[in-house]
Amino acid sequence: MDSTWVNTSLGLNLVPLCSADDHQAPATMQHELERDYAQFQGNNALVKEEQVASHHDVLAEELNRISVENKKLTEMLTALCENYNSLQSHVRELMITKQQQNNSSDIYRKRKAGSEDYNNVIGLISPGTNTDTCSISDDQENSCKRPKEHTNLKISRVYVRTDASDTRLIVKDGYQWRKYGQKVTRDNPSPRAYYKCSFAPSCPVKKKVQKSAENPCVLVATYEGEHNHMHPESRAEVTLIAPVSPNQNQQLITSTPLSVSPSMAKRSAPPTFSCDINRISPNTTMCPQETEAAAFQQFLIQQMASSLTKDPNFTSALAAAISGRISDHS
DNA sequence: CGCGTTTGACCAGCGC
DNA sequence: GCGCTGGTCAAACGCG
């Protein structure tokens, strides 16, 4: 990796340090400067050459030190990129493994397998409560649906973080939904709510919302079908809703389809995730695919930042660089 | 009064 | 065939 673009300057913009004892009157300081200048003029030419040579040595030493520091930072950046790539490939392998398991197993013909899959995905993407939410597109889940009714149904899931105490099964995604049923399922104490898209009478999209069995702070919204109409709002509410709001304590972050979907498998190249951070802010207009991509990028960035701060080599090198800068100026 | 929600009943698929 | 389960329907209800 080319290191020339890496700015090794810490940008501290330090002024020459002086001790507390040096707070002298300006007149005194000027007097000392004049005395030093007189001494300087009094030196012979040999002394001047020695001083220039000494100064040159100092500069050369400084240059070497910066070069070493630059090299060290470049190595760390390279290692970071390698870790990022390995993490990405690991996630991809997990997705492929899961897809293969789905293909090879008949359990997804069973109805209950669908809800088990919910929990598996949650455990895979957010093993703890530290992560927010994500979604996957899952065309393959068709296999666990009634084959006569759902032949070309597009199914996607969105995970929404909410209050565990919030019993409302509401996921704001900008569309208009009409609730037509609620059911308590066998493997989850939380009821499942059934919604139909009510924006267009002929819209076939349905939505199921249920709290995760493992993490009651997570709402799982399953979308079936595709809308045959435009989004009802130009500014969709598929947004991150600030948790400070007491009534709408929801944080919806979706991710790039992690995919288990045949559509993903058809792609010529595996999905890649750039390092651009698209901060999801309130009232951001984003389609579900865009929010998924942005959220997954953010998830990866958080993972990278977390691993960086936990890396003792990185923190020690950073501390050394800062202290080196300070000592140089003092 | 219109619209959305609630909730018990009903239907269909699946396993035993 | 029976029971279990998920999904859907529709009457009752509440709210603005």
UniProtKB/TrEMBL annotation:
Q: What's one Pfam family the UniProt record gives for this protein?
A: WRKY
**A GO-annotated cellular component:** nucleus
WRKY domain residues:
166-232
- Signal peptide residues on this chain, from the entry's feature table: none
Which subcellular locations apply to this protein? Nucleus
From the UniProt record, which GO molecular function terms apply? DNA-binding transcription factor activity; sequence-specific DNA binding
Q: Which UniProt keywords apply?
A: DNA-binding, Nucleus, Transcription, Transcription regulation
| Gene3D superfamilies, A to Z | WRKY domain (2.20.25.80)
Q: Which superkingdom does the taxonomy of this entry point to? A: Eukaryota
The UniProt entry's GO biological process terms, in alphabetical order, are:
defense response to bacterium; defense response to fungus; regulation of defense response; response to molecule of bacterial origin; response to salicylic acid
PANTHER family in alphabetical order: WRKY DOMAIN-CONTAINING PROTEIN (PTHR31429:SF105), WRKY TRANSCRIPTION FACTOR 36-RELATED (PTHR31429)
What protein am I looking at?
WRKY transcription factor 40
